[in-house]
# Entry
Amino acid sequence: MKMIKRINRQAIFVLIPLSLLSALIEWKKLPLSILIGGALALVNLKGLHWEVLGLTNPEAARGAMGNLLFFSMFRLLIIFIILTVLLSFRLINIFGALTGLTVVFILIMKEGLAEARRL
# Structure
């Protein structure tokens, strides 16, 4: 849980200045797209955290394997639907959303590497 809080904090400190800088390039959609992409990645990380906790908890994992698989696919479907709807109404820029997703992915990899070195 501490690692997720660190990732959330770092994502805020990276995504907000990045979206402010991107306003110089294209001020209409790009900053909001970066923030939405980052927020979706952070929500996805939190959902993944809940699923891993469900798998590692022996009491919850007895009959929950099918539920965990369903909710994992459902979570990805919801993220895909949100991105598709926002893109179809031209509310976000795809490159901005991918930038936000990539920034959070890089932060997750960086924190995972730092955690692995501590072990």
The radius of gyration is 16 Å. The chain has one domain: 2-118. Residues 2-118 form one domain.
